[in-house]
């Protein structure tokens, strides 16, 4: 039995905690030990949650510990997870029992798949990817490491989602569309073909509203 620590005790962290209690392996492979958060008082106004045990960087990792990261900003998530990994930490993939996963799907380590997510056939999901409730991942989709697919987002069949991508709530990537690394698709937006690396797009159809900074 391993002890699960949830990194981040904000709103998403509380959501992940509730999902963990209904996830595959809970009570058999792992139990929830508590949270890590730099705000030690993050849960002071809430009840029925396990404690914030320590700050993220100062926590001493124990042999039976295992982690999931409930930080919604992909760049911060990557930095924090890489720090935990460098200190010998291990991450599990958390899959809610109500997640639909079809045949030939590959899912990496450290992922979080929440209630109602729909993962169709022949999909490849990288490491540390979050798929929130009722998001739809169509057939043959590839999602790169660290990306965050928010609730009700839809990745059409054959689409390619790069690393460190955020698809916000109810956004759509049409079949065979491409969202390159480090890009953001705004809520309710529709990607017809391609989002260039580092861009932020919004609207129907999605258009660039913020371009990457030149080095």
TrEMBL record:
Coiled coil: none annotated. This is Acetyltransferase. It comes from Parabacteroides distasonis. Acetyl-CoA binds at residue 148. InterPro entries: AcTrfase_PglD-like, Hexapep, PglD_N, Trans_hexapeptide_repeat, Trimer_LpxA-like_sf. The active site is at 139 (proton acceptor). Belongs to the transferase hexapeptide repeat family. Substrate binds at residue 72. Residues 3-83 form the PglD N-terminal domain. It holds the Pfam family PglD_N. SUPFAM superfamilies: Trimeric LpxA-like enzymes. The record marks 140 as: Increases basicity of active site His.
């Amino acid at each position: 039995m391993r002890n699960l620590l949830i990194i981040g005790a904000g709103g998403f962290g509380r959501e992940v905690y509730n999902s963990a209690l209904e996830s595959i392996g809970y009570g058999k492979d792992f139990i929830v030990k508590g949270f890590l958060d730099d705000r030690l008082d993050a849960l002071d106004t809430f009840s029925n949650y396990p404690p914030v045990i320590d700050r993220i960087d100062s926590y001493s990792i124990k042999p039976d510990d295992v982690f999931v990261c409930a930080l919604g900003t992909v760049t911060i998530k990557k930095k924090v997870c890489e720090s935990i990994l460098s200190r010998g930490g291990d991450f599990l993939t958390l899959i809610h029992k109500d997640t639909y996963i079809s045949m030939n799907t590959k899912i990496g380590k450290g992922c979080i798949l929440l209630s109602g997510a729909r993962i169709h056939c022949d999909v490849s999901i990288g490491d540390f990817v979050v798929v929130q409730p009722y998001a739809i991942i169509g057939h043959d989709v590839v999602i790169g490491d660290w990306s965050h697919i928010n609730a009700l987002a839809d990745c059409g069949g054959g689409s390619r989602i790069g690393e460190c991508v955020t698809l916000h709530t109810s956004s759509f990537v049409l079949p065979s569309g491409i969202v390159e690394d480090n890009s953001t698709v705004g809520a309710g937006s529709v990607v017809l073909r391609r989002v260039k690396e580092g861009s932020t797009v919004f609207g129907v159809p999605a258009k660039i509203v913020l371009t990457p900074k030149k080095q």
